[in-house]
């Protein structure tokens, strides 16, 4: 048996928490956001005032022993994700965590094992999986619309950091500037890698690809200084799958286009689907389909059942897509059933793919998958 209501504490009070996480939860009438935490007392106070959350703490550990909290939502910087997620699971809380849980897929898998051992549910912040257009496309694929999947193309790209003066987030201050560091493929590529695995639904067997640093000098948000940032701001990858399908991924910080710049395409023996999650002309998503007998792509209307109540494609995409993510997680927990899409196990698969891509670039070769084989 499930429960009737869900009580959530959000850890992290930055822009993404305030624009997506907190309002996403609060949109669901079954959910109460009961507490906020952030090491910045001013930030947590402002977020609490903005969203009407009275309980505010500067140490997330103050919340872990509270039996009236069901979910810990980790919306902090990357470096704190793993520590907070594991501590919350150990305390018996369901966990939503922004990506990545950990830069090493084995640690993410360990967190997934911990959740399973404790009978808890987990979810990664794979925002774009929960876009109504992406969910609708998955239903079409599962219904046989594309037939046997042959090719997947995934893109996550936009102009967000094409200007080197735009402050760069999530910088590793200890990184060796002589070595190209993973950035775009993990921060931007992970959501489209997630969709690739989900749509193709076949074991990946090998990968090859490359990374580039196109803009070497960038503004660093934490210092306010232009610095040498040897990061992958452009990537291209090819993947092979056990079914015989092929996949390609392109992620970049320096490709012209509107945020968030996500596009997923799948082509099969019977038809094809293209989903664009790009904010254009006030619309944040479109889906187009074609068949082998009618090869011109035509736009489809996304059925209302894939939206939150009263939702529509002219909403800001962070609010719309994250509302769906939170609604999905709330349903999974409250139902008491086994369903748990986009969980830490899926996060480990995506992170292992990122790690395999990096190994391919470092070794300049095809890399077998899974990595430990």
From TrEMBL:
InterPro entries: Gfo/Idh/MocA-like_OxRdtase_N (IPR000683), Gfo/Idh/MocA_oxidrdct_glycsds (IPR050463), GFO_IDH_MocA-like_dom (IPR055170), NAD(P)-bd_dom_sf (IPR036291). Residues 134-273 form the GFO/IDH/MocA-like oxidoreductase domain. It comes from the Bacteria. It holds the Pfam family GFO_IDH_MocA. This is Gfo/Idh/MocA family oxidoreductase. Residues 6-121 form the Gfo/Idh/MocA-like oxidoreductase N-terminal domain. It comes from Spongiactinospora gelatinilytica. The keyword Oxidoreductase applies. One of its GO terms (molecular function) is oxidoreductase activity. Keywords: Oxidoreductase.
